[in-house]
Amino acid sequence: MVSLGEFSRVVSSIYAAAITPVHWEVALRDIRRVLGSEQAGLFVDDPSWSVGNSTLPGEAAASYAQYYHRFDHVFAAVEHGLVGDIRTGTELMPLVRRSELHDWLRPLGIDDGLFVRLTDGARPVCLLTGAARGDEAFGTRDRIRLTGELVGHLQQALRAREQLAALADRTGELAAALEVIRHGVGIVAADHLMIDHNSAAERILRREDGLALRSGRITATTAHAEEKLHCALAQALGAGLCAVRRGTTLTCVRPSGRRPYIVHVLPSYRSSGEQPRRPMALVLIVDPEDKPVPPAVLLRKLYGLTRAEAEIAIRVTDGAHLKDISQELSISLPTVRTHLQHAFDKTGTHRQADLVHLLLALSP
């Protein structure tokens, strides 16, 4: 008979595994202990049966995935059963007594046990609690009852793990998307909390030159700019008296004397599973001092520029004079002008200002 304290510890370890998957082995060891089994494991059919997490030795799990899974008529029967239905070794083990799988099971002390399909769908997860054959069948009334009480917690933990994994994927995708933008981008929730931002925004906020992050909130470092930013965020979030959400563009003075940031604050949303969409504000910070230069490879790929033409176009974008380019590249001034004219022709521009405008627009 399992005490309430022991049962509580097992349940706690199951939910700990949902949050931190490396703890599944601990949870399965706890399940094995309270049931008195030799082994415990989660088996996954994706696209053939393999050991997900278990107390099995690593080499045993590998050999099962590589070879012995093809003879596993036990889990084939469990898969075709109902979700949550507890099947006994007395019922199922005869299916594999004379197969090669029995050679894999015997050294592991599995000749009896309890088996449960925990999840539905095309990628089912099943629980194994395996034991050696004894005078009494492993599937006693107490063990079946205890397993039944654990099934609901295991199913909830697996659902939580799946949702957390999906959330991590979405967060990773969002972070990757933000990183391709060269300007500072942040996502702001209620109370001006910055819940996500890219590395460009991180650099800007770390300088505390006009904008900063204080207690997780985006703020301006001057009183006048802070008032404008506060109002813009309220309008984007629909907070206070701002019933209609709308975007705002403002400038933010920098104490360093550099050109002010241009800050676009736009309404946005973030969904969380089945929860209602939450109002968010997308903050785009443009630093006029940042003058990106498109890579030569991009110019050559998009417009067919030669290496020399692309190099000269980039230097012009950076503000270099043609005479200086001639000296730096050790080519004559007429040659520089010829390459530049070819760059004009290939990009459909007619003067240096047009070319600079086009090249600056290439960088996201």
List keywords for this structure.
Beta-Lactamase, five-stranded antiparallel β-sheet, 12 strands
Tell me the helix content: 40-55%
Strand content range: 15-25%
Radius of gyration: 32 Å
Class inferred from helices and paired strands: alpha+beta
Write down the overall geometry. elongated
Helix count equals: 14
CATH architecture of the largest domain: 2-Layer Sandwich
Please state how the strands of the largest beta sheet are arranged side by side: 2-1-5-4-3
Q: What is the C-level CATH assignment of the largest domain? A: Alpha Beta
How would you portray this structure in words?
There is one protein chain. A five-stranded antiparallel β-sheet has the order 2-1-5-4-3, sandwiched between helices. A five-stranded antiparallel β-sheet has the order 7-6-12-11-10. The longest helix has 39 residues, at 141-179. It has 14 helices and twelve strands. It has three domains: 4-167, 2-Layer Sandwich (Beta-Lactamase); 182-286, PAS domain (Beta-Lactamase), CATH 3.30.450.20; 296-362, Arc Repressor Mutant, subunit A (Orthogonal Bundle). With 364 residues, the chain is an alpha+beta fold. Residues 272-276 have low confidence and may be disordered. It starts with a helix and ends with a helix.
